[in-house]
Design a protein that fits this description.
Layout: E1 6-8, E2 12-14, E3 20-25, E4 39-40, H1 47-53, E5 68-86, E6 93-97, E7 100-105, E8 112-128, H2 132-135, E9 181-185, E10 190-200, E11 203-212, E12 216-225, E13 228-233, E14 235-237, E15 240-248, E16 264-272, E17 275-284, E18 289-292, E19 299-302, E20 305-307, E21 311-314, H3 326-338, E22 343-346, H4 355-364, E23 367-370, H5 383-400
Parallel strand pairs: 21-22, 22-23
Antiparallel strand pairs: 1-17, 2-9, 3-4, 3-5, 5-8, 5-9, 6-7, 6-8, 10-11, 11-15, 12-13, 12-16, 14-15, 16-17, 18-19, 19-20
Length: 404
């Protein structure tokens, strides 16, 4: 879940084809999987979208999805060292490879990657356990109730409230591999780059950190717009590659109501074990943003200018699958811009959106008010819950911080 858009010469492939799904009673185990009715499924996707595609779920005749176990499986043919990536599974998930436990997850907003050794034909199996039995377990009562929720115990689980708020969202709670599952062949040698983009005086500043193995021989960061190209080399320090790129007098990114949402193309050029590798970092903008609280006000200032923000709360384009094609995001955000809005809020009871949404926002000149995925519940403070939240926030900040 990084800022990488594509990697040339690196065989990362989304596993989209060949998936099957099945339903089972709560408490099901993988040894019974041959008894189930397996049907084709799309990944990324959810239990509701798989059932909808199979003609087993409609708005008029929904079912209590949180009371069932849902399974996905994939026949995988690969050999050699590889990394399997799971960018988000909702919510109480277990993953097996050839019957051996590979991964457990209890946070739908956290991505996972696992190094594996493959040798031909393999079965990848995902179980998303029923949430209802867990909600029925007696736990300490919250200090206050949330009227919009039927299940107050949801506060113990890092999952979306979509589908679980009667009268506010459709009855299709997210369950399943709702974000991409992918494979990257070969031992990992290039980690996830993080960008910190800002403006200091008349200069645009980009600080980059690239986590890496021992295979990287050189690294260069490049920002480009029209005829302007700025290049800066990275240096290795304590197992990481660090660098700073300075763009003199950059063209600033503005909300479309105040100017041009100017963006620079950004990428890293690496030499890894003698092979040239390009990491596409997408389009990035330079701007300052701050909150002015002088005289008791609350004003948003972009590039030192007061911005009157007008907009709306965003909800997923497809509440069932939580996925949409890039062109659908582009079209929806363009409509927001054409309506005169300059800000959207992604609210806490929903989900962190796909990269395509944030990229469309950058291009259209729309500001983002991004919530963490929390509502007004009395959340626990036990170490396990807090550790999961920390991982979630760190991942999302690394992914979203470079956006304009």
């Amino acid at each position: 879940m990084s800022g990488i858009r594509s990697v040339a010469c690196t065989p990362r492939v989304e596993l989209r084809e060949g998936w099957q799904f099945a339903t089972a009673a709560a408490g099901s185990t993988p040894d019974r999987r041959q008894d189930w009715n397996w049907q084709p499924a799309s990944v990324p996707g959810t239990a509701a979208s798989a059932l909808r595609d199979a003609g087993q779920w409609t708005w008029d005749d929904p079912r209590t999805l949180d009371a069932e176990d849902f399974w996905w499986r994939l026949h995988l043919v690969e050999s050699g060292a590889a990394t399997l990536g799971f960018d988000g599974i909702a919510t109480l998930a277990d993953v097996w490879l050839d019957g051996k436990p590979l991964l457990g997850s209890d946070n739908m907003f956290v991505a996972h990657r696992v190094a594996v050794e493959l040798n031909g034909n393999h079965e990848l199996l995902i179980r998303c356990r029923a949430l209802a039995p867990e909600l029925a377990i007696r736990r300490p009562r919250p200090r206050w109730r949330v009227p919009m929720l039927r299940e107050q115990q949801l506060r113990w689980f890092r999952t979306s409230l979509l589908g679980r708020t009667p009268g506010w969202s459709p009855p299709c709670p997210p369950i399943g591999p709702w974000r991409p599952v992918w494979i990257e062949k070969g031992a990992p040698t290039v980690g996830e780059p993080t960008l910190d983009i800002g403006v200091e005086g008349d200069n645009g500043i980009v600080d980059v950190v690239l986590e890496s193995g021992d295979g990287i021989e050189s690294a260069i960061l490049i920002f480009e717009r029209d005829e302007q190209r700025v290049v800066s080399g990275l240096e290795r320090h304590d197992g990481r590659w660090l660098g700073r790129l300075i763009v003199n007098d950059p063209v600033l990114w503005w909300p479309h109501t105040h100017g041009e949402p100017a963006l620079y193309r950004a990428w890293l050029e690496l030499v890894v074990a003698g092979v040239a590798v390009r990491l596409d970092l997408g389009q990035r903008g330079f701007r300052t943003i701050r909150i002015d609280r002088d005289a008791g006000d609350f004003r948003i200032m972009v590039n030192g200018v007061d911005v009157f923000c007008r907009g709306a709360c965003w909800t997923p384009l497809d509440a069932v699958s939580l996925n949409a094609p890039a062109e659908a995001y582009e079209s929806a955000v363009d409509q927001v811009r054409d309506a005169g809005m300059n800000m959207l809020r992604v609210a806490g009871p929903t989900v962190y959106e796909a990269d395509a949404f944030y990229e469309a926002m950058d291009r259209a000149g729309i500001l983002l008010w991004q919530d963490l995925m929390f509502a007004n519940m009395d959340y626990p403070e036990d170490p396990g819950f807090v550790a999961g939240v920390v991982a979630e926030v760190e991942q999302q900040l690394a992914r979203l911080k470079p956006h304009a």
